[in-house]
Known about the structure:
Elements: H1 3-43, H2 53-60, H3 64-70, H4 74-85, H5 96-99, H6 103-119, H7 121-133, H8 135-150, H9 153-157, H10 162-185, H11 193-207
Region (Disordered): 1-24
Pfam family, one: TetR_N
Protein name: HTH tetR-type domain-containing protein
Amino acid sequence: MTPSSASSAADSAPQAAARAPSLRSEYRELTRKRLLEAVQEVLEETDYAAATVDEIVRRAGASRATFYVHFRSKAEAAAALLERVTPSDRGLYATLPKALRTRAGLRRWLEQSLGWYESHARLLAALNEAMAVEGTVAERRSVAVERMVEALPEYLDHADDPARARVRLQLLLRQFHQVAMDTVVQQAWQPERELLLDEMAAQWWVALGGE
């Protein structure tokens, strides 16, 4: 081996060692993503109680041992999925500050939000069941709501009483979630859609200080 090739080999060794943990981390994330996709598939086809780890790992092409490397339980996997699909500080809720500038914009945002619940109805029904019986999932939902509140700094920063403003936003978001679950997910209550949107927009507009 020539001096130059020896030097090159010595230089590449640390680089290869640095890449190895990175590749392991990427593989771990891909495996976790595949497992969560399998959890979503299963919960879109059955209720939470009937979903099994065996079926999840079969869909993911993984083993039970691999599942438990990433999640301590089915409940923890459901909680992770809830966090993954909730449009908190990304996507839908990122557009809310702009929507709050006009009453018409707010109404359009509420309509889009109901549409999101409709497009995820089967999954949300299963996750709602999980929240009712699993504290881990319910806690993750509370974290997601808090992230939604944090996604509205324009409103919070201009509030005379930030603590009261936070509680007001929490109430609005939680009430909206329950209305969406009752009307478009479980369909236990079927008011006229346009009337529902008008009334929700009016309540939000007043609560958030619209002119």
